[in-house]
């Protein structure tokens, strides 16, 4: 449970300015190996040609010298601004050797100016800005104007490294030409340049890292590298059957909620041939909670009430699917029609491709909605776990993604029981959903158009976010207020929902319930019902598709799995992005971007849930393989030099050759001297 005052952990190493004993080099842990090795010590190639006994001395001297040169260069020769603007090097903020080599230099002065390392540890000049779009294909250039002791620019650059079409550069406050050109008056402040030369200030609520990063990531055309590849690979054989719908993410859509209910009740829960024991109890509990708290249209509420009473009357230990199916049919002819639409239409939960989002998104939305409704309709301390326990039971017994269910169960087992009030339950679900978001962010199954953010993002709820000495923190009372408004019946919209079979009654559900979709023929509906509940279960959001829907699971970050319950990792995105970039760089082309780590949610009816771990394991293995270079042998880690295996092998080979060469020369001269000594002298004349 998120307790008041919980600190939200940042996985990106804290700014050196906030650390007391930082070496400042920890952020380099995840650098791509190539750069890492190259930066470890520039003397490496020289060392390879030295005989072993000279190595340590020369190595240390060379590194020392290089370090000095780096600093002197940045202080004077290359930097027209002089030493004044050099990045600080106080002992508390002292950067590591690699940082020192670059810190404070202009990006353009560096031979490897376009590498992440160069970008992060240097600053941008007017000339670089002028020629940027000629040299780069990016659509946007974000400039973070800041003072030399600020780290915001570097942090934002770091956060955005894996994103394409946008570049981030820091500009120092002393770069007069640029400061004047952009009319910068506050530091830090961010500006966005476009290819056509126009620019504007980043419209953020707060001049802080998370606000900049969030804004940049949501710009149109910004993609994460891997997704571009994914999309290209998929483009040829994927067709999105459903029409894209206009959705506003600040709204909740009835079409999503009803589609989710239909799928969960008639497909997911009715998958087993019979329901009994805990499974039957979980189902009854789910329906009863829906009746109590789901703010549905009257026909849907009647439907749920009828089903609930029918279930209450069912006293047999086993409930066969055929009986349940019959009980779950719509009844349009009754004086109070009981109808739960059978068409599946995703609006707010629509993915950019059919295999993204959809049902799991709808399920989260339903349960958030239920926790909020429960919090607003009873004494706070009364049955605080009512909705959360229902969700836990539903997920455990019915949710088609078994691995997801296991993760959720683990989270629930750890802290759900400690929830003592209904509002706390709302926040528990919110924070744990964010934990899941953090774990899945950057994974292959994340919809590129809907990146997994810590929710609500700053533009949806600026007052929910705070920065305390550069570290992100949530304002929980503000979050609660926001959640209550977002998941309120007044914010549920009827766009694309099936026409209400009882139009008169619609008035009761509020003015938001306005627009309507075409009414589905009853026969067609019944046909669909049959299709949905029998035989092969089809994908929601993909009508007629022969393929089962495959919502997917992303492998877990074990580090995050270990994380305590109270921690919400806002910055885990950056960490994950950065790490995955390092892994990609190390693995080169080997990485298969994929649906390989996806598992099928839906399986043949009656079989229940299936759990395919193999693909996830494969990916994990692949990831381990990719990260091999990072897991160096202990003595190398102790040295902390960042040599790759290739470096070491080359060195060993060259050491061996040079030693052999020396030995050969020694033997040759020795033999020659001996031969000379032994040879009789020329007879004297
Ligand atoms: C219980 C459960 C466990 C899951 N576990 C896994 C798993 O282990 N691995 C896996 O690959 N997938 C898992 N999923 C699926 C995954 O969480 C997403 O639902 C899915 O990837 C679709 O993501 P989405 O982008 O639509 O957003 P979702 O995460 O599904 O969110 C849906 C909507 O809820 C809102 N929202 C987002 N975050 C919050 C929040 N913190 N609080 C309140 N509202 C929020 C947003 O409006 C968002 O559009 C799980 C789903 C559920 C329901």
Automatic annotation (TrEMBL):
Top-level taxonomic group: Eukaryota
Domain (ERV/ALR sulfhydryl oxidase) ranges: 352-455
Entry keywords, A to Z: Disulfide bond, FAD, Flavoprotein, Membrane, Oxidoreductase, Signal, Transmembrane, Transmembrane helix
Residues annotated as signal peptide: none
Compositionally biased region (Acidic residues): 524-533
Protein name, per record: Sulfhydryl oxidase
Class of this enzyme: oxidoreductase
Physiological role: Catalyzes the oxidation of sulfhydryl groups in peptide and protein thiols to disulfides with the reduction of oxygen to hydrogen peroxide.
Molecular function via GO: flavin-dependent sulfhydryl oxidase activity; protein disulfide isomerase activity
Catalyzed reaction equations: 2 R'C(R)SH + O2 = R'C(R)S-S(R)CR' + H2O2
């Amino acid at each position: 449970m998120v307790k008041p005052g919980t600190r939200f952990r940042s996985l990106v190493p804290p700014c050196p300015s906030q650390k007391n004993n930082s070496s400042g080099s920890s952020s380099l842990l995840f650098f791509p190996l190539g750069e890492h090795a190259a930066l470890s010590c520039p003397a490496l190639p020289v060392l390879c040609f030295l005989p072993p006994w000279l190595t340590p001395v020369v190595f240390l001297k060379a590194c020392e010298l290089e370090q000095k040169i780096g600093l002197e260069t940045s202080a004077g020769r290359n930097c027209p601004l002089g030493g004044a603007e050099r990045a600080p090097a106080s002992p508390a903020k002292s950067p590591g050797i690699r940082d020192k080599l670059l810190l404070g230099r202009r990006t353009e002065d560096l031979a490897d100016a376009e590498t992440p390392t160069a970008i992060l540890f240097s600053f941008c000049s007017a000339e670089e800005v002028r020629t940027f779009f000629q040299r780069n294909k990016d659509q946007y250039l974000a400039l973070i104007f800041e003072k030399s002791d600020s780290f915001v620019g570097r942090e934002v650059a770091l956060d955005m490294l894996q994103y394409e079409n946008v570049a981030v550069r820091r500009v120092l406050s002393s770069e007069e030409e640029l400061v004047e050109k952009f009319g910068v008056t506050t530091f830090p402040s961010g500006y966005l340049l476009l290819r056509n030369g126009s620019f504007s200030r980043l419209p953020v609520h707060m001049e802080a890292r998370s606000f900049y990063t969030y804004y940049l990531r949501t710009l149109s055309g910004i993609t994460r590298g891997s997704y571009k590849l994914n999309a290209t690979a998929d483009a040829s054989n994927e067709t999105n059957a459903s029409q894209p719908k206009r959705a506003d993410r600040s709204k909740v859509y009835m079409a999503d909620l009803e589609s989710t209910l239909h799928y969960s009740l008639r497909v997911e829960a009715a998958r087993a041939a019979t329901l009994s024991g805990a499974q039957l109890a979980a189902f009854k509990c789910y329906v009863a909670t829906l009746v109590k708290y789901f703010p549905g249209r009257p026909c849907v509420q009647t439907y749920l009430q009828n089903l609930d009473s029918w279930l209450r009357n069912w006293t047999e230990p086993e409930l066969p699917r055929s009986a349940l199916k019959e009980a779950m049919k719509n009844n349009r002819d009754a004086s109070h029609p009981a109808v739960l639409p059978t068409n599946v239409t995703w609006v707010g939960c629509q993915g950019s491709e059919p295999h993204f989002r959809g049902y799991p998104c709808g399920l989260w939305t339903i349960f958030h909605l239920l926790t909020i409704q429960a919090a607003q309709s009873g004494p706070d301390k009364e049955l605080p776990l009512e909705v959360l326990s229902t969700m836990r039971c539903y997920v455990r017994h019915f949710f088609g993604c078994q691995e997801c269910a296991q993760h959720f169960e683990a989270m629930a087992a750890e802290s759900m029981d400690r929830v003592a009030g209904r509002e706390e339950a709302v926040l528990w679900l919110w924070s744990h959903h964010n934990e899941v978001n953090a774990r899945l962010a950057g994974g292959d199954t994340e919809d590129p158009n809907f990146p997994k953010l810590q929710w609500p993002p700053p533009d949806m709820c600026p007052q929910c976010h705070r920065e305390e000495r550069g570290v992100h923190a949530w304002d929980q009372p503000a979050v609660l207020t926001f959640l209550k408004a977002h998941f309120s019946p007044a914010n549920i919209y009827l766009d694309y929902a099936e026409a209400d079979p009882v139009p008169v009654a619609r008035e009761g559900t509020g003015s938001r319930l306005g627009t309507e979709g075409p009414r589905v023929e009853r026969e067609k509906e019944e046909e669909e019902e049959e299709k949905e509940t029998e035989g092969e279960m089809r994908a929601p959001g993909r009508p007629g598709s022969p393929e089962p829907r495959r919502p997917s699971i992303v492998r877990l970050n074990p580090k995050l799995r270990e994380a305590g319950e109270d921690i919400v990792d806002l910055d885990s995105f950056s960490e994950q992005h950065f790490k995955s970039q390092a892994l990609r760089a190390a693995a080169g082309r080997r990485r298969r971007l994929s649906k390989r780590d996806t598992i099928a949610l839906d399986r043949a009816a009656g079989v229940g849930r299936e759990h395919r771990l193999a693909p996830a394991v494969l990916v994990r293995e692949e990831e381990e393989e990719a990260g091999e270079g990072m897991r160096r042998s202990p003595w190398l880690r102790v040295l902390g030099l960042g040599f790759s295996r290739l470096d070491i092998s080359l060195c060993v080979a060259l050491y061996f050759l040079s030693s052999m060469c020396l030995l050969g020369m020694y033997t040759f001269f020795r033999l020659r001297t001996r031969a000379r000594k032994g040879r009789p002298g020329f007879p004297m004349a």
